[in-house]
Specification:
Shape: globular
Strand content: 15-25%
Length: about 375
């Protein structure tokens, strides 16, 4: 039997006194929540709501509980909090290897600069002049832009026609527009390809030099909820409906990428943090470039200018694509999403495209968009 007068006995006595105290209860509650999160996240539509918690909380909460356990000498609480901390790191969005990977190196010759940006309803609330000046200033070879529409603030969107201004500002780019998405490219467009994912635009581009093909997937996954009162039944109906939409989008995108015969870059607004179960689907699409940012907690979404919260935007690549650099650029108040900028090249030579192959624009989805190059305007627009 341990002597209560000994130092070891004092520790065990203290643990016994504190057993069941506030630190242990708090650690147990968090552990139960974390277990439910790991079990239900991405598998039950309702868990989309708890998964919207800021991802850093998955390390901040158990870290605070660990400090409280240490201050009170509660060994059981410390063990529970420590286990929760280890399990929560992956949910937090932390990129442990980022400092080692993030050192910038100049991209090799033949690399192209690609930017991906959610424009927040295409300068609906801002002056078009600074908006277009900002876009031009990015000086990208390829732009993958989302939300080419205006918000009606009732869960629907109004189509827009800014074709004239687009052509005036980007005379050296070819524009492919569909589904509220725009791909602007200085590189020759080899083809546009229909996708099973309804909110994705695939455009195949000829890379400089030997004309090898890079497939680009411009992605916008639906947001999880409508900004209406959670006391209304419509709120939960919308969450359930959008959970089904998101599942369908990811299923289609996974099939589209798997069927693509070319090296591919998949980028856009996924409306998904590391704490949301759909991040498991994202991991199956390709290699995440985020470690190249050099940031342990990379963030891309800012509800207010200068106040960045967490990451919703992703850049992924399939074998054959080399991503040389990756950074988030400040949108200067023009959007709540940062600009993603990458430089890429192709790793190995592949077969040249067929002679004379030019753009083949898919019709499916074009009623959501402006006419594509060399295509008449659809009836009714």
């Amino acid at each position: 039997m341990t002597n209560p007068e000994s130092p070891a006995g004092a520790v065990w006595a203290g643990a016994a006194v504190n057993a069941g105290g506030p630190p242990l209860w708090a650690a147990a509650v968090w552990a139960v929540f974390l277990a439910a999160h790991l079990a239900l996240n991405g598998r039950w539509w309702f868990w989309l709501l708890p998964s919207l918690l800021p991802p850093p909380l998955f390390v901040a909460v158990p870290a605070l509980l660990l400090v409280a356990a240490g201050a009170t000498g509660d060994l059981a609480a410390g063990a529970v909090a420590g286990a929760s901390l280890l399990l929560g790191v992956r949910q937090s969005g932390a990129v442990v290897r980022a400092p080692a990977r993030g050192a910038r190196r100049p991209p090799p010759g033949g690399a192209v600069r690609i930017v991906s940006w959610n424009t927040q309803h295409w300068c609906q609330a801002t002056d078009p002049e600074p908006f277009y000046a900002f876009l031009r200033g990015l000086d990208a070879d390829v732009y993958l832009l989302q939300e080419y529409h205006h918000d009606r603030f009732d869960g629907t969107y109004r189509l827009i026609d800014d074709d004239r201004r687009l052509r005036a500002n980007f005379p050296g780019h070819e524009a492919v527009i569909a589904r509220g998405l725009i791909t602007l490219s200085r590189l020759p467009v080899a083809a546009t390809v229909g996708t099973a994912a309804r909110r994705t635009l695939r455009v195949d581009l000829e890379m400089p030099g030997d004309g090898r093909i890079l497939a680009t997937f411009n992605v916008h996954i639906p947001v999880q909820l409508r900004l209406i009162s959670p006391l209304r039944a419509d709120f939960y109906r919308a969450v359930r409906s959008r959970a089904a939409d998101r599942e369908q989008e990811y299923r289609g995108l996974l099939a589209d990428v798997a069927d693509c015969p070319h090296p591919a870059l998949i980028a856009g607004d996924f409306n998904t943090t590391a704490a949301i179960g759909d991040s498991r689907r994202i991991a199956r699409l390709g290699a995440d470039a985020v470690a190249l940012t050099g940031k342990v907690w990379p963030v891309s979404w800012q509800p207010r200018p200068g106040l960045r919260w967490w990451r919703l935007d992703w850049v992924l690549s399939t074998p054959g694509v080399r991503v040389h650099s990756y950074r988030f650029r400040d949108p200067r108040g023009l959007s709540d999403h940062c600009v993603q900028e990458v430089s890429v090249s192709l790793a190995e030579p592949g077969p040249r495209p067929q002679a004379g192959l030019r753009a083949h624009h898919h019709d499916e989805g074009t009623h959501h968009a402006l006419p594509l190059p060399r295509q008449d305007r659809p009836a009714g627009q």
